[in-house]
Amino acid sequence: MKRFFLVGFILLFTTGAITSLTLEKSQTVLATENKVPDIEHPIKNPKMYSETMICPNCGMMINMWARTRHSFHHPEGDFTTCSIRCLADKSVSSGADADNVRVALYVDPDTMVPVAEAFYVIGSTAPGTMTMKSKIAFADSAAAEQFASNYGGQVVDFQGALAAAMMELPNSRMAIDKKRKATGKIKEPTEKDVCTVCGMPPANHPKHNSQILTMDDGTLQFCSTQCMVNFNADPIKYVEKPVKPKMAWVTLYSDGMYESAVGCYYVVGSQIDGPMGKEAIPFKLKSDAEEFVRVNGGKIVGYSQLTPAAVMD
C-alpha cells in the first residue's frame, strides 16, 4: 500500500486500463462557447473554510482555494490540500497512501463529501488550482454533466481525476516553477543580493540558497537553509520592521530546482555541510532523503520541526 499511488498509476497506464477509472457514462463534452463560469476562484475574501490555513504541499492559502480543497488521513498525519494535484503530489513524494479522502464541492465550498460519492469534471473552462487543466468536484453525476455541457470537460470519478493529476505531475512541476519565476514569487538571487542573516551572497551558493516571499511581495534571500531557519526563529533580530511571510522556497539537493519549503523532507545532522556549516538538506521525495541518510547519516524531519537547535544538532 505504501507505493499505491505511484506504482498503481504506472500499472494503470502501462496496461491501458485508464478507462476502468472513468464512469461508464463519462463523456467529453465540448462547450459550444468558450464560456467561463461566473464563480469566484480563488476566493478573494474567504471565510474560514479550514483552520489548516496553508497547503502542506505547496504552501498556498487553503481558504482562498477552498473550492478545490481535499482533506485526508495519511501516515504522517491529517492534512488538507488546496487541490487534488497536491494530494497526488503528497502521496508520490511520501511514497504513502492516503485514505478517508474528502473533497469540497466546487459550487458549494462549505460542503465536503467523500470522494467515493463525488463526480469530477476535468478540463472545463473553470480555472484550475496548481494545474492548467482544472479538476473540480460535484455531488452527483447530473450536476457534473450539466456543468460539462455548459463549460466543457470530461466527467470522471475520483480515481479518474487522481490518475489525471498523477500523469500531469512532472510537467506541472516545470510549469509551476516557470510561472512562479515569471510572476516574481521566486526571484533567483543576483550578485548584488545578500543573505538576510549572515550577509553572504546567496548567488555564490546555488545548491543551498533559500528565500521567503513576504505578504508585501518583498523577497528575503538566504545563502542556506540554516540561515532561513535562524531567521524564522527570531525575525526581528535580522530586519528593522516585522515582516509577514507569504511563501518560502528552498533549493532541492537532488535536482537544484526550487520547491515549496513546507512540502519538503529535510535531512539534519548529516556529514554534508552548507555554506554556514550544519545544514538542513531538502528533498522532494522521502525515498531520496532516506537514501541520503543511508549514505551520509542524519535524520529526516519536516519543515515544522526545523529549529536552529535541530539544524545544529
Describe the structure in your own words:
- This protein is 27% helix and 22% strand.
- It has 313 residues and is of the alpha+beta class.
- It has two domains: 4-181, no CATH class; 202-312, no CATH class.
- It has a four-stranded antiparallel beta sheet with strand order 1-8-6-7, with helices on both faces.
- β4 and β5 form a beta hairpin.
- The two termini are 34 Å apart.
What's the N-to-C terminus distance? 34 Å
Can you tell me the number of structural domains? Answer: 2
Q: H/E series, N to C?
A: HEEEHEEEEHEHEEHEEEEHEH
Helix content: 25-40%
Count of alpha and pi helical runs: 7
Widest β-sheet, arrangement of strands: 1-8-6-7
Can you summarize the main beta sheet? 4 strands, antiparallel
Chain-wise SSE layout:
Elements: H1 4-14, E1 28-29, E2 70-74, E3 77-81, H2 84-94, E4 99-105, E5 108-114, E6 119-122, E7 135-138, H3 141-151, E8 153-156, H4 158-182, E9 210-214, E10 219-222, H5 225-233, E11 245-251, E12 258-260, E13 265-268, E14 281-283, H6 286-296, E15 299-302, H7 308-312
